[in-house]
Structure prediction request, 830 residues.
Amino acid sequence: MPDLIDALQTGCGPLLPVVTETRPLRQRLFESLRAAGASSRADLARWLDCSPASVTAVSAELIDAGLVKEIDAPREPSRGRPPVALTVNAAVTAVAGVKLTDDAHTAVIIDFSGALIAQATLQSAAHRQTMAATLTEAEALLDMALAKAGMTRASLSWVGLGIAGVVDHAAGIVLWSPLLTERNAPLRETFAAAIGLPVTIDNDANLLALAELWFGAGRGMTDFAVVTIENGVGMGLVLGNRMFRGGSGLGMELGHTKVQLDGALCRCGSRGCLEAYVADYALVREAQTALHFNRDEAGSARELLETLYDEAKAGHKAALSIFRRAGRYLAVGLANVTELFDPHLIIISGGEMRFDFLYADAVLAEVQALTAQTGRTAPKIEINAWGDMVWARGAAALALSALTEQLLGTERVGG
Amino acid sequence: MPDLIDALQTGCGPLLPVVTETRPLRQRLFESLRAAGASSRADLARWLDCSPASVTAVSAELIDAGLVKEIDAPREPSRGRPPVALTVNAAVTAVAGVKLTDDAHTAVIIDFSGALIAQATLQSAAHRQTMAATLTEAEALLDMALAKAGMTRASLSWVGLGIAGVVDHAAGIVLWSPLLTERNAPLRETFAAAIGLPVTIDNDANLLALAELWFGAGRGMTDFAVVTIENGVGMGLVLGNRMFRGGSGLGMELGHTKVQLDGALCRCGSRGCLEAYVADYALVREAQTALHFNRDEAGSARELLETLYDEAKAGHKAALSIFRRAGRYLAVGLANVTELFDPHLIIISGGEMRFDFLYADAVLAEVQALTAQTGRTAPKIEINAWGDMVWARGAAALALSALTEQLLGTERVGG
DNA sequence: ATAATTAGTTCAGCCTGAGAATTAAAAAAT
DNA sequence: ATTTTTTAATTCTCAGGCTGAACTAATTAT
Prediction:
């Protein structure tokens, strides 16, 4: 704007507009309906704080479009005209979610109401691959899932794709991933072109947060963090019921927050990262010392960790101290998240919660102790083991919300 | 909503609505105009991405209301009909900003366009006081500033009030402050009742961020953090051009993020807080050791720190190491902010930047080193010494934005 | 003078949604 | 059985916010 009179540049206040989002009533109504499962018009009007007249108009529009339908629902007898239940027409279409890992890719298909239709798993290459090779696997997996569901690609209208690494969700580009040989891979466009369907991508931690927001403990929360500990340490954050991806939209790097000056060496090259104390590889390298194993006799990292865990359970001092230390540093990381974001809930989530030393009461108590001093109420911390499909479900939720935005949002993307 | 049919609770997706904010065009136009200082209708239409017709209508409305006026502005000759410059009518009203500290309270008065009219300072009690006593001082200070400006309270329409501590901006309550003897002090309502004007309150770190957003380096940024090091360590954060105050709206506690497991004792009672390494009191207690002073011979904390600083400058090894260590821990804290929020800019700001060891290139380089590994572009870090009035100016910006919201926003607060 | 160019206005109209009155369908009261 | 009460849903009118298209206004270029 500074076109006109630079001499008069005496203004004040932010030069850039606030990011503002308008959700038309039809979208809010639809999303409320899907969230509730089924609901009457009167309930919707109360819930959305709008007039019954608007609900009638909007729901008629949605019913005409075939997205919503009336159903007969059992109800308790009560005074007054009985409400008519509305529900999302699950049969409208379906979407898929695919999660890529270096172990096994997973996929799920859900219908328009969010209900699970089918799932599939495909053993994947354990090493870095090109994007092309990875996406070939993803395509095969998607077709497997479709076959299980008795569907074809034409039955789908969106696919969500998740991958570990630094992912630019908005641009659809993977800046870096432990799975891919190339950097700045245009994953979204490439996969979309390959399967002939619109695609949305995100990183694994955000998928987990999305899964919690759509299917789990986060459904009733507006602000929560989801922390996951696997090969690395990831975090997805929901603020004001929306994914927060940081200033540049690349997601947060809880695993690389520093919990120790000049601390343990992280695979990122820095020292003192949280990851360098609690991620798998951090435990593995100490396990080798504790159990007096060489790399050769140790077998796979996974086996080594299992041994370490068993030893710790059996009372092995050194083994136990590894988990203890990891737990204490995890507490520091979670405390820092609390001090900076002040979420109402921290969910520690993932496919499996193998090492319960990390999620012991002592760890949670330490988080409380580290944060209790500043006067605010400490967040609750929950542990959630979901099984391997949780990421794929999160990816499916990603697809479903993108589809809904396209169908009902203000910004129509090509139709 | 779960009124209807619990049996059908098969829904998915977030149950709570996204926090959505609608800013009517008249408000966006007005704020753009104030930000630009002066602008033509045509420029505004381009800037706001709306039709010229709307700009004509809205600006006519604002001119009628007396909030905006046309001015003659010098312009370069160019083809076409010459634009007519619009500007905010600065004379409409004024607002004040007041900042309370345990050293000296400060106040500024700015006009409706944000231009400074007057400022004043009042020596304050160096000890904790009741809210009533503090507000009596604040009231006296406000009247001093008004007298300097040749104005009366009736000339003001809003007052912003800032105080260190845990402040619930939305509720107008100070949960805890180093200045007040009581907890959960209803500062906003009490001061509003005392001076007969609407009041908005916030904590000092947020005021600083607001000052940067309105008057400083943050004006052209949508995402940035402002860090301040004084008696404690505070942070204000702007995300998407809006203040972010954490999940509970109480602000962030950068000073109590942990940078060392079982580290230095913080005045909050925990160990390893950033504050316990870089805040004034942390330097003081080490200075006593380094300079072999007793409490008695040391004089005030301020003098002690000055001595420490001079000694360090002169090459005193122990004194230097105190600043060095503080700087390194500060780098850890800033690196963590970067990993978690990924702001485009971190501004280290405050009234005075006394100890340039803390803001040395070595510190900034360490932040870069600690964050460079994760692939994203590290934020720029700027140092900004503003002088004592910066907080009061931030408080005035707070008042001005609250006033604007009331005048032009959708949510009319009582008329 | 005339054309070209840019600024700003007028006016009809669309879209979203609200309010009030009305109709619909059930249980409770008589 | 009829009436009243209660709650649900619809219809209709209308207002606010904004747009597009056509128009007027004021300047420079030719």
